[in-house]
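Wait, mind explaining this?

_____
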Amino acid sequence: AAIPKPPTTALAGVSKTMTPTQGWTTSGTKDQFVCYVLDPGNTQLTWVTGLQVRPGNDLVVHHAVITEVTKQEDITAIVAQRGIGQPWDCSASATPGDFVVNVWTPGNQPMQTPPELAIPLVANSKLVMQIHYHPAGQTNDVDFTSVDLAYSNVWPRKMYFVAAIGNEFAAPNLQPSPDEAPGTA
């Protein structure tokens, strides 16, 4: 039988595309975590019904986490310190943001919802894109990873929130891996 064509990873009905103003070039053998503040430009409450991350250099972009910064004092501080679209090494700290909007991995289909289900994008909020780069021991081409958003002006019946569920970073709440669990060989 014929192999079916893979589904598209393009987001339909893009309302806004955000691309960093300065790219990042990976090198070396260690993974890198780099963050960018992005401005969706919304001056009023906006409903996100679609999101897709488009890696600029798919050889090194391992995954991306998009968070939303909603508090004006936090926005003022992060923009003053980091600027819009400028990369910084964020491997030693948590990604700024009040909540996770999306987690993207290569090959993901776009996050798309019907208009009655949406993610709130608070007026004047900013998004932070944290990219995990895997340089694979070589100097690579500059990466300008973009984020596409689709908006709806329909007030949704339900709001959509993303939660990352995982392990703690350190004891005493760190759970053992299966091969470290008591009673396992």
Notes: Residues 6 and 107 are 10 Å apart (CA to CA). The chain has a mean pLDDT of 88. The first helix runs from residue 72 to 82.
